[in-house]
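Problem 12. The chain below contains 218 residues. Write out its predicted structure in token notation.
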Amino acid sequence: MTNKATNPANTIDSVFADTWLTVCQLKNGVPIENGLAFYQRVCEQIDTARQQLQELGYSTAAIEHMLYAQCALLDESVMNRNIQDAGYEQWLKSPLQATYFNTLEAGAKLWDRIANVLHETNAEKAVLICFHRVLALGFTGQYRSSQDQHRTQVLKQLTQRVPAYALTAHLPLTKTPGLSFNRRHWYWLSWVLGGAALFALWWYLSNSLQQQLQQLLH
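Solution.
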């Protein structure tokens, strides 16, 4: 695990790597064939992230902020697709935000959390990084559109305060037994630049990683 004190960006991107990849796959249209199995696997991602963050010594408040953002992003990524598959049906029964935080208002409440942290004098860098990644991966919540002016302004503030995403050799790739791949087959397309030079994180994945993550989703 990356040392949080020396490299908070790589630490957070390492802790949440599986979630970032899962969200990219959902946004690329990969269907969920087994809703319950996928839900359980995503819950494992959240539980593992909590454990790793605790071991790294982050405060309870910081961990709750980051896990709340993780749940909100995953919930929105599943529910805002143009398909109503087994995953959609599973999420109707039990969104992650309800399971972990007993709320159905993450679309608004996450923005409140972001605003509060941005106004803190000594805001935890890891929390800012996590919030930035969640917005860069497309979370909109109550604003619905990624081009909403307020959303754009908040993302700009976060972008100015955190390091850009860096794909580094030590970030873990999700492993699935029986499958093998080479890192040269993992394609990094780009940060998509928007107005005011905002970064939007997006991955296009190779055939081998595509097959691997399809199994994760199924």
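Discussion. The longest strand covers residues 190-193. Students who got a different answer should revisit the alignment rule from Section 12.3.
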